[in-house]
Amino acid sequence: MSIQDIACVFWDYNRTDWSTEGCNKVTKSFSSSDSFAVLTCSCNHTTNFAMLMSFSQNYKYSEALGVISIIGCALSVAGLVITVLFQILTRRSRGVSPTFLMVNICVSMTIFYLLFIFGINNPVQHKAASAPSPINSIPPSDVHHEMDRGPCTAMAALLQYFLLATFTWSTLYAAQIFFVIKNAISGAPRNINTFSIVAGWGFPAVIVGISLGATYRPDKPLNYQQEEFCWLAALTPNKEFDVWKPMFWGFLLPLALMIFFNIAVLFYFALTTCRTTQSLNSSQVTPFRKKLLSSVSLAVVLGISWIIGYFMLLSVDPIQQNIFTYAFCLCNTTQGVQIFVLFTLRTKIFKEKFSIFRKSVPAPEVSVHRMSYHLWSIREEDPLESYRSTDFDQQVLHHMDDQTENPT
Quick one: 68 and 118 in the same domain? Predict the structure, then answer.
């Protein structure tokens, strides 16, 4: 905390309130070369007086978490864009795959990541003044407040909307998976796409509208948003979690209901796929590794890893809270990358398309230095040779003659 402003006051018994009448603020320096100054109060009357101080919060940020968040979100945006294009271009060849829901999940998640990268930090930082105001006026509160300035409130509302939209579409995806498993023949209801559009984009709008209408005021923007980040308010001035803030009932509560439903569908999906039918032969039984990978893929797209955030909020031990914080950051900022790997990169169609694309791209030409050599024959006179016959030479010659005549 840093001092934002100071007021020299005395207690006025007639008004039963603090008053600045007859009091002034005086700044004194110990020497002309000393930059250190002391602020004192001077009053022309004798009564009970005091100093009222208005404080501003000094925020400290974790650089490691900031770097992880930016890199993870940037990679997720790239993976989600490729996934959307893949889902749209290959929707016919993939048959009954729920392309419509997957595309909406990726679109809303992509917009959220982009808003998070470029708009999460408050562009209007409320920092403490370099020196208290020379005017001796009573601060309106013991905590410094300012009028709403800049786009931070709008950015917080957009972040809340698109994050809730992402989970709403994930819940609709889980509902369709449930209907497909429950009604293996008929599948999902016919009008599920129309209902999904209304619920997927309408339900988050209702929550955001209620949150803004109940908490936001232009003169008190911190009732809805935080000061350091363009996100929902959650804490009291004493840094305690407040259930009446929009962070709880405008985000955590509806998110918890959707995550619990998604977990129930995930367990139902895992039990159904892991159950082996006795009538199937060994060639028709799905390997356990493929069943496990299907469950992991569904858990990723349903956003089950966001439950780590609740453990992070409930943890009291600082070490546990740091562990949950880093785990939450790693898992959720890379959720787009995980969707790309599991639903695009691993698919057979993507591998075939990528193989065709790779073959169509000509190989780059690499220049190589060439050297030419010219060969010609050189005629030289054979030197004169002389031989001397010995008994050993004669024996060798006779042996070679015998081998030639009698090859056996």
Answer: yes
